Amino acid sequence: MIFYNFKIAWRFLLRTKVFTIVNIIGLALGFAGFVLASLYINHEQSYDSWNPHYKDIYLVGLTNQGKTTDLTSVSLGPAIKAQLPEVVKMARVNSFPYEIPFSSDEDVFFIKHWIGADVSFAEMFGIKTPGFDLDSISGQAVFFRPDVAQKLFPNTSNIQDEWVVMGSKDSGFPLQLSGATAPAPGLSNIEFECIAFVKELGADLPNNESVQTFIQVKAGTNIDELTAHINDIFTNSISKKTENINSSIAKSSIYLDPLKNLHLRPTHGSSTGYKIVIALGALSVIILLLAGINFANLMLVLAQKRAKEIGMKKIFGVTRSKLIIQFFSEVFVQCFIAAGIAVFIVSITINILVKNFQYDLSAFGFNESVLFQLFIAVILTSVVSGLYPAFILSQSESIKIIKGRYQNSHRTQYFRNLLLVFQFVIAFGFISVMIVIHKQMDFIETADRGFNVDQVVYIKNQAILNKATDFITFRNRMKAIPGVESVTVATTVPGGHLPKAYDFQYLDRMFKFDHIGVDFEYFETMGMKVLAGRAFSQEFPTDTINAAVLNEAAVKELGLKDPIGTIIRGCNTEFKVIGVIKDSKTLGFEELINPTIYSINNNCQIPKVEILAKISSGNMQATLAALATQWKSINKLDGDYFIYEFVNQKYATLYAKQEQLQRAFTGFTILIILVALMGLFNMAAYSISIRQKEVGIRKVLGASSQEILFLLNKPFLRIICLSILISTPIAWWLANRWLQDFAYRVDIQWWFFALGAVLSLLIAFITVSIQAVKATYLNPVDVLYEE
């Protein structure tokens, strides 16, 4: 009986092969989108999930007036561990924010992620050190990641007691290695190429030094109560000892951020990664839902062609339950075929994810997890697609079915239209949101950032140039090279590590300002506009001692009308304001511009190592070649390697995740439109096929081709217009929610949705017209001869 049912189903599919092929392709696209989304989502959600204490590890951070940091005093961790029994382990980690060359006799490797940590950090995060007992550490033990060890010592299997030079080959610091770490079991939020372990990280650091503090708690611990206890410790034991009672740190409060949130939605940082995961998951489910709706619609519109088969089976005693099983079997077979095609599509397009998301997905191919997810998707899609049609087709009376009266059911007609409305509500909504996303990304690309770093290069350097006198030789030698317009050095660069915030005092009030240590020609190199006063100038010797420049946000925070000459105290200096510059979005468009103070005096003790050079247009390659040739003689402290980046490319990393979201959303929106159009194509083809006699009669009575074309499009265009009306407020809400992530964003305009409506109507009109045009050219004799 089962074989007989499949044989009948196969013959029916062959008779309706156009509809079937279109439907299976739609399902295949839906499954392919689902698999690609699953690969990415599995990758993103796997960070640290292999850690057996994954759910019990928390990062301790600070929040103050809506601003957060993931750094806390180095003395906080031991106080928490000593006073709270529910804290099982405590570990601290400190990061070195600069790129440093490590050299061996065989090769050199530029370390970007170099961290120091307590020994307990290794146990908490599953870092293994084969051949070395971390409990035996008396001073410092330095380990390389396995790939770094392989590059620097390609012929050595055990690098314990080997030596490398950190920094310049001639004047760098020799460092003895303790070995290489074992390969990590999986992806982790803890990135390092070099890690140095000590017994107690805080032993050689001042109490007010900031580090990342992690705690591991007992399973079942009440995190809200624990946070309150840690806040008490921070307030009573830490902030009063390390900071002035009026400082912003003393007024901060503790938050605990779960390890499971740190990659996708950290409290301190961007949650764009989480939004990408949610968006891809929702989009993949929506595509499958639309493909299932197409299938349900197809079964309903083709019901009349199967009327005699269904009626005869019921007359010969086939029960309703067996008919339902038959219909579900047919749906499952087609879904299974579509899934097979989807696997083939993904196998030849998986490089799209690698290219657009820049991830190695080799560990996330068609493994058991993905195949199981695909199988569940096939089952659920089969149920969604076949449930309503199976029950509707199997419940009708045999005589009515045989007489072919099924297609006249207003209930099924309304239901088919409802499904089509739902499809285009989704399609139009995503078209509109896609337009908003593209406008925001265009805004990021073209809006005034408050600085202009075209033709500006960032030269990587480890030489500390805190004093203006340290940099004079650099500037003069570099500017002597044709094409170099201006040169400066600073503590930070757009797209690099964030400026550090300090407490500054004006009159009797304390303010938290970002501080950026700079040198002469900084504002000229960065293309920043001076709005009042002046920039730093070598004509004023005191500029290196106590001069400061504020941005507009700092002036507003201080409430100054005439800031020039104002005295601000901070970093053990009385700064005199000499100028005001225009606000610059150096932190990107997601963050509000922070009040910032710039000074050449670097008593705040952040090393000035970021060398910036503005190069005239047309001379870039020749100038960079000359700099590379002379760099060793220019930078005698750290000139072994001339490595640079263009600042505008470095700045672009701030919104790289948003660009990923844009590409993902655009790709899935196109898939959604294609699937919806396939459903519309099938509906239009069937609807027009059963109206051929009507078309023939109208042509005999003198109707023109244009009138017939409009007549056949009219019911579908009404459905699309209804979909647009329903979808517009939903699309506006979704777009507005997404834009809330940006401190600086476009305004949602009415024409965004008007453009989406025009596009939706146009593609729907073209899809229906492909079938309708054929009907307008039919010979009335061919369709009316039976009458």
Whole-number total of structural domains: 4
Average pLDDT for all residues: 83
Largest sheet, described in full? 10 strands, mixed
Radius of gyration: 34 Å
Total helical elements: 23
Overall shape: it is elongated
Number-wise, the strands total 25
Helix content: 40-55%
The portion of residues forming beta strands comes to 15-25%
**How would you classify the helix and strand content by structural class?**
alpha+beta
Are there runs of 5+ residues with pLDDT below 50, and where? none
Terminal CA distance: 40 Å
Domain MacB-like periplasmic core: 20-232, 445-588
Main location: membrane
Membrane topology: Multi-pass membrane protein
Organism: Albibacterium bauzanense
List keywords for this structure.
787 residues, alpha+beta, 4 domains, 7-stranded mixed sheet, 23 helices, 49% helix
